[in-house]
Amino acid sequence: MTAAARFDTLQGWLSWQETLHPKAIDLGLQRVARVADRLVCRQPAATVISIAGTNGKGSCVALLEAVLLRAGYRVGAYTSPHLFRYNERVRLDGASVDDAVLCDAFARVDAARGGETLTYFEFGTLAALDIMTRRCPDVALLEVGLGGRLDAVNLVDADAALITGIGVDHTDWLGPDRESIAREKAGIMRAGKPAVCGDSTAPRSLLEAAVQRGAPLTLAGRDFFFKAGVQGWCWQGRQSRLDDLPAPALPGAHQLANAASALAVLEALAPRLPVTRDALESGIREVSLPGRIQRISGPVDQVLDVSHNAQAAQALADALREMPVKGRCYAVLGMMGDKDLAAFVQPLLPLVDSWYATGLRVERASSAAVIAAGIRASAGDRDVVACASVQETRTALQMRVQPGDRVLVCGSFHTVAEWSALRTYFD
Description:
The protein is of the alpha/beta class. The protein has helices at 10-20, 30-39, 57-70, 99-113, 120-135, 171-174, 178-185, 204-213, 255-268, 277-286, 310-321, 341-345, 368-379, 390-398, 413-421, and strands spanning 47-52, 75-78, 90-92, 95-96, 139-143, 160-163, 195-197, 217-219, 225-228, 233-236, 241-245, 294-296, 301-304, 329-333, 354-358, 383-387, 406-410. An eight-stranded mixed sheet has the order 4-3-2-5-1-6-7-8, sandwiched between helices. β10 (233-236) and β11 form a beta hairpin. The longest helix has 16 residues, at 120-135.
């Protein structure tokens, strides 16, 4: 730590950052850009890939990271939110940075900001860019936090942009429908730099934005294709075809679309980032990302998923159908107050026998009572229980579940994190 550092612990820095700006979210680049210019951190790697979208961003980052590392590149990755520890947000060569690295970066951001106020996310984004700039990885993978055009990650002029599936989420900031949301996400595209969209039903606004920005767009279902097979899957891009690829290690049929999008980005960047077939296969086969339809096998199976919008709930429902359960399915659901609860619950209704609405240790979270009322409005007379906390939910479930049952934990990163921290197992 430097002598001028405001705090000497990571938690001290993080707690202070939560109070620094009067708003938790304040979209816009003017303030954060001024600080970034003082830090000289807007070119964090020789090659930068920005990833935006409603769902699948984290999976695409993990897939690209796994492949590029196995291809021998030095890779930095920035993602959010974290699941267990803040350190997960910044990775260098596959490993989370330690507290000291983050604290030093926070001190540099603090020194550079002058009188500028920064949100929690902006402060962390600048720290991540500063860390990568100093470590000089070959590739930086930057996950956009909210939207794209006005997100702090968009300070960086990426060499390639990847936009994953586009659903309806964060409507208070991004607009009420897919057209307006897609327009915001298209803001990460750059003139003359390749852009990939993994949504085969991409709104017209995104296609128009690519033309207006002069970004050559590669679109799923038009410029690249994939198909599942008995022994593996195949991928067809603009210039190459790959057959008999291994299934992604991340569970769920929707991960083929994410893997296909990652391959389209790698094809677009092949002249500057060549990747061998062996590296592709190894990365796809060995990629790991906790909390994405993560199955914990036991007498009572547990499935943990951070999904929190309708599009992700549908992918979760499809995956659950591929994993039939002998007994009952109990769903533990905790959600933020700004989410569309009814839309999230709907795809899961046929697969859940009992719902446990749970409160979370987060101010933005809905109360258990509100969640329970929302579930009842959609599920009718289905079994719904409200519990004030995740720990209370676990205790209640331990009295009910039997071998052969399943416990599904979903609705938020916070729900999965709090449940995982309890290290719950059922006999």
